[in-house]
Amino acid sequence: MGNRMRTFLAGATIALAVQMAQAQAQDTAAQRAYAAVDPFIGTGGEGHTFPGATLPFGMVQLSPDTRIQARKDAYGWAAGYRHSDDTIVGFSHTHFSGTGHSDLGDVLLMPVSGDAKLERGDPDVPGSGYTSRYSHATETAAPGYYAVTLADAGVRAELTASARVGVHRYAFPQGKPAHVIVDLRTSMYDYPGKVQWSRIRVRADGTVTGMRETRGWAPGRQLYFALRFSQPLAGHALQDTEQNVPYKGFPPPGEKDSAQRAQIEGRQLVARFDFGDRLSAPLVAKLAISPVSEDGAIANLDAEVPGFDFDRVRAAAQAQWAQALGVAEVDAPAPMRKAFFTALYHAFMGPSLFMDSDGRYRGPDNAVHQAKGWTHYSTFSLWDTYRALHPLLTIVQPEQRNADIVNSLLASRRESPYGVLPVWAFHGLETWCMIGYHAVPVIADAYMKGIRGFDADEALDAMVASASYGPYDGIAQYMQLGYVPIDEEGEAASKTLEYAFDDWTIFRMAQALGRKDLAATFGKRAANWKHAFDPATGFMRARKRDGSFRTPFDPDASGYGTDYTEGNAWQYSWYVPQDVAGLAAAHGGADKLLARLDAVFDAKVDPKVFAHMEDITGLIGWYAHGNEPSHHVAYLYAYAGQPWRTQARLKQIMDTQYKPTIDGLAGNDDLGQMSAWYVFTALGFYPVAPGSNQYILGRPFVRKATLNLPNGKRFSVVADGLSDANAYVGGVTLDGKPLHRAFITHQELMAGGELRFAMQAQPDKDWPGAGAQAPYSMSAQ
Amino acid sequence: MGNRMRTFLAGATIALAVQMAQAQAQDTAAQRAYAAVDPFIGTGGEGHTFPGATLPFGMVQLSPDTRIQARKDAYGWAAGYRHSDDTIVGFSHTHFSGTGHSDLGDVLLMPVSGDAKLERGDPDVPGSGYTSRYSHATETAAPGYYAVTLADAGVRAELTASARVGVHRYAFPQGKPAHVIVDLRTSMYDYPGKVQWSRIRVRADGTVTGMRETRGWAPGRQLYFALRFSQPLAGHALQDTEQNVPYKGFPPPGEKDSAQRAQIEGRQLVARFDFGDRLSAPLVAKLAISPVSEDGAIANLDAEVPGFDFDRVRAAAQAQWAQALGVAEVDAPAPMRKAFFTALYHAFMGPSLFMDSDGRYRGPDNAVHQAKGWTHYSTFSLWDTYRALHPLLTIVQPEQRNADIVNSLLASRRESPYGVLPVWAFHGLETWCMIGYHAVPVIADAYMKGIRGFDADEALDAMVASASYGPYDGIAQYMQLGYVPIDEEGEAASKTLEYAFDDWTIFRMAQALGRKDLAATFGKRAANWKHAFDPATGFMRARKRDGSFRTPFDPDASGYGTDYTEGNAWQYSWYVPQDVAGLAAAHGGADKLLARLDAVFDAKVDPKVFAHMEDITGLIGWYAHGNEPSHHVAYLYAYAGQPWRTQARLKQIMDTQYKPTIDGLAGNDDLGQMSAWYVFTALGFYPVAPGSNQYILGRPFVRKATLNLPNGKRFSVVADGLSDANAYVGGVTLDGKPLHRAFITHQELMAGGELRFAMQAQPDKDWPGAGAQAPYSMSAQ
């Protein structure tokens, strides 16, 4: 397709989006869903979310960065923004939503008026740099839109975004020179040598392009950009501020006069672009990113935002968000609607589009590849998101998106130098963060739920390859011994447990594909959790190669070097979602297991015990809702025949761990996993064991919710008599028929219909009743 | 074209080359030309050549590196090899031939037996690293082939090359473990932070790929490679030895056991590949490079060297060289034939192919581009090579190659962030080394000589753009004042003079294209040399903006900050090749100019005056044959009506500045310029003013030479009566008719025929005679 045609089509797409936005203005549900979102939720406290502008699953996340910290202090600023800060450094184009590690923050722009400093300065010394004070009173945020007044510069700054383009609108004060700083040095935190190389080029037509290559969370990451302004440049300056080992080559033209420089390369680059003091209208800056090249960024810019119509881009963003959020209609009090739709909003932050408009992207081999027939995504926080985020997307996003996600995982495996599926990947690159091979349950769950559009045989091969890659985290020993030996590999108990679950999903998919050999192998491996169970203590523990459990053993202990990953024995000992019945049997029966679960929730725990662990937050006893290993635990009561206990624990969690406020998330949102838990739980069901096609029933927290399923059907949840006092389920009907089991199936959900809960003040300890069908448990099949 | 087809064709090409090699075994001339070459000429002394294996204009130059120096000592090791060293560090795949600056040295391989150290060690302490001693007695080199015995490892190592692939054959001693070290750290010299990023990946099929990104002579240079061994790997180790700021990410699989690592990334990488102690045949390693990607390198490997037949690749290299060198047949004593064909060999070292087998390459914007319809070259040492190297290629290489060179220059200009033609470019990137815009005379000379196959209008546009780019080296001031002012730009006299010459070639081409406007503008600019001429001292000098010459003035002074580039007033004051008659007139007549030239050659000069200038070597008085500003000077006598004085000076130069020995080059070969001077001068003529289509006659130094011109014609030079005593020309005939002028034209040369010199002991001061047509001089037209 020629450029002109592509530009035309992009224009047509935007026009269509605007039409849709107008249409949806009459669509009360979608509009009300959009209006309910508060992007500031989680920007304080532990949430690590950002308030800036992005599309659902967009490649650009354009958001203010409030402070740049030293690496050791970077945890709290992983999203760039902390609501408690009173300064803004600038607006950068890529952010993680809710992570515990910090990276991205690519291409920081900052409007400045008057004297323009090229250093960000000390945030505590106003005027010492281009950093500006701001007041929350001037801030506005909605999905796809953010605005703030920069007090020091006197600039009203607005942000919006298309998929690959961040669009800024800056209203400068009259009569003072207007500038835009472009800083390639800042990158969420300061780290010596983080920028491996970077480039800024001012082209003859005023387009500014460049790249930065960084070694942050993932090393060798290249990101390209193209930037255009709505007004011609009156001047510019390009500077390399490196003091450490500056590059000494022959001077390029313009060395003596930065305003004459057409390009600069180095490791500490900053630029100033000048627009004089007579701007007759707000300045619009549009910046496209590309994983491939500067030309790729220019093509993305041309394809998505051909002009400088900020409002048009904003309207298109609003339309896309309204359409996406309109998948749910919720009848609930305003605070809960805000929490619900903001959770849904945060659930659509990842995986992120990672592909140029021509289908090219960069893979885990750091090479450029071409997506043929699918849309490529990256940013896979899989240890978190396989639990509830991907199962949620399977329900509320189009099948094509879910197939694209699987195709992206499969492409990454084809391109992997290790021949394995992503573990924790972003911008195409592998970070090896966290444990497990949890792309496996994502794919298995999608396949079991009928998602097609990818090569199932290749997928199974890829899953088996990931589960069999010996050098990774003790898999060789796991395959030999049936468990990961702690004397050879750290956090061995957690790894054994999670591998066994992932293996069970391979077993499921192999069964579905008629691959009996693989089903036998991985069915056996799925029982490996038993090797971690210590009957003497009732905890999951790590064994040594000689078969003995490691001693001394402290079930309270957590941290690197222990048996567990971001947790302790109290938190990790219930991770057998594929076989809760087996777990209960191991404990000596369901009652024994129930007592243990109560011991978890009801323990008196001094939170200081986790002072050394950033991620373990949101404590209820030992239960830590702020981190993922706990997320399924409250639902285990239902397996053990006491759904009323699940209902009670869920109320306890919902009441204490989520608020529709700045600090409303008890833990890192982790690319939507915390939010997906909320969405499911508010609706009254949860995917404890992805791959099982079952959702365990909890209780609804909304009066009514209807899901407008992508297949055109509608599935409603109704909570009759719901009130704060009526917190227990007295009975459940599905499509009017009493439901005598504590779960529903994916097939039932996707068929549309109505799930109706009768809420009451007292627990109904008899529901679903003796002889009710139990949820899937492997050993009970 | 599919891979299979491409591989097939590559195989067919090699088969054809082998056939040609066999055919040429009967072609005495080509075979004797090939046999006459001694690649060791220039590897000692000032030549900076390398003895390794490459094809004519090949992308790979595979050669031993003898020592790695600190950057401050790197000058003498710019080609990696110094004959005076007695150790070899390894064999790397890219080298400059004859430069004064140092870079490349990409992907160093070293065979080791027994205990394999990963550090190169101290060359003065045998066994302290993988560096090995060697003896010149074991060395063999021929075009496309090099062999040596590594004494410490006991390995016989042979090297050969195709265009993009280096092929190694290592015969290991029996009974000891055989290893190959791959070192990405070494790069001709040590410089902190030079390697920006690098990667080594061991693929499942045993292919090793990787990349390195360096900031050396040009920053941000990326080079990719793919390596295969003829024997399966028995093991491997991948190490990052960085001590300064090592990358701290999450450990990839195999962190604990290097043998399990599939990939390593970092800034100081080295690998060891193991082959056990039972190799039944010599190990063949083939390594392809690519400017684009690892996949590009694999494709290059597959396309050019599908198997592991070292001898087949060697035979094909020999065939290509014999064909290229067979352009000349020379009747001369063996030492002169050796010097002549080695000079021709060195003249075919650059520009170098810089394009993958699929036509992709990297441009000065560091982006990947696709050559459509031409072969892309880089490594343009233009300040040197516009003088004689490119004019030589215009005669002895196919028109397509010369058109490809022009197309490569034009592509680089299209891709240039500055919109200008290359200045000193390699691997696609601009270094801004030296002065002038000498791609301009290369293109003009090619066009004036009838080279077609490029867009002449675009070429003229590009030439004008380069000559009008204000920020570069004082061009803005030059366009304003008619000279470069020394108070605003260093080395201003040299710049004014060279710009004026380059401008004259634009004038010539604009005239030829009927662009009268441009011809007028640049014809005027061509006379700007007059602004540098100081009648009071008779020297070219630098003026200040106020029009006065800078004082104090010392015609002996050279160095950075002076009026001149790598020279002094004695050396630079004759640089008006476009208007020697005008220069003579400025001096007050030809006799005055002649006296000044004698003063140059006959001065008593203490060489210590240039001790601070690495490049000014090969002194005869002030005449410095080791550097390019002097190269045309001896021929100026002929312009002034005294060709016999040119003949005498040429003998003086040929007798003292060239020897067919290790230290046989008086200065850096500079990508073939020193050698091209030799080839022309040995044949009896020289292109003093590229763009004039005239070759000034000197005198032949060979009894007879025949050029097998690419158009199928044959042009012979005969020196009747030639002897050491008969050093003067008594008369000249062209095709049997007496020639009454001291030049021939390109048209005459390309028409074929015979140029016959009658050599005699006494100068013929009357030839070419009163009223003889003078060579081109602009002011005389």
UniProtKB/TrEMBL annotation, chains A, B:
<dbReference type="InterPro" id="IPR005887">
    <property type="entry name" value="GH92_a_mannosidase_put"/>
</dbReference>
<dbReference type="GO" id="GO:0006516">
    <property type="term" value="P:glycoprotein catabolic process"/>
</dbReference>
<dbReference type="GO" id="GO:0005829">
    <property type="term" value="C:cytosol"/>
</dbReference>
<feature type="signal peptide">
    <location>
        <begin position="1"/>
        <end position="25"/>
    </location>
</feature>
<dbReference type="InterPro" id="IPR050883">
    <property type="entry name" value="PNGase"/>
</dbReference>
<protein>
    <submittedName>
        <fullName>Glycoside hydrolase family 92 protein</fullName>
    </submittedName>
</protein>
<dbReference type="InterPro" id="IPR041371">
    <property type="entry name" value="GH92_N"/>
</dbReference>
<dbReference type="InterPro" id="IPR012939">
    <property type="entry name" value="Glyco_hydro_92"/>
</dbReference>
<feature type="domain" description="Glycosyl hydrolase family 92 N-terminal">
    <location>
        <begin position="37"/>
        <end position="290"/>
    </location>
</feature>
<dbReference type="GO" id="GO:0000224">
    <property type="term" value="F:peptide-N4-(N-acetyl-beta-glucosaminyl)asparagine amidase activity"/>
</dbReference>
<keyword id="KW-0378">Hydrolase</keyword>
<dbReference type="GO" id="GO:0005975">
    <property type="term" value="P:carbohydrate metabolic process"/>
</dbReference>
<dbReference type="Pfam" id="PF07971">
    <property type="entry name" value="Glyco_hydro_92"/>
</dbReference>
<dbReference type="Pfam" id="PF17678">
    <property type="entry name" value="Glyco_hydro_92N"/>
</dbReference>
<dbReference type="InterPro" id="IPR008928">
    <property type="entry name" value="6-hairpin_glycosidase_sf"/>
</dbReference>
<keyword id="KW-0732">Signal</keyword>
<dbReference type="GO" id="GO:0030246">
    <property type="term" value="F:carbohydrate binding"/>
</dbReference>
<feature type="domain" description="Glycosyl hydrolase family 92">
    <location>
        <begin position="297"/>
        <end position="760"/>
    </location>
</feature>
<dbReference type="InterPro" id="IPR014718">
    <property type="entry name" value="GH-type_carb-bd"/>
</dbReference>
